[in-house]
Amino acid sequence: MAAGLLLEIRRGTQSALLVIREADPPSSPVDVSVAADRVEVKSGGSCEAVTLPPEVRLAPSSCRGLRRLPGDGLHLRMCLSCPPPGADLVSTWRESLKPQKNYVFYCQSCGDIIVKDRKLLRVLPLPSENWSALVEEWCCHPNPFARSTLHPQHGDCFLGETFFLINSGSESHVPEFPTCCSETGHHTSQSHSNLKSKENTRVVCKRCKTMLGETVSSDTIKYYVTEVIIQPSNGSFSPKPRSQFIQSMVAQCLVELSSAKSTFRFTLKGDNGKIFILIWLLNSDTLLVESSGSSSSHGVFTPFGDIFMPSSGPVRTWNAVKVLYQPCIKSRNKEFM
Question: Whole-prediction pTM value?
Answer without folding.
Answer: 0.75
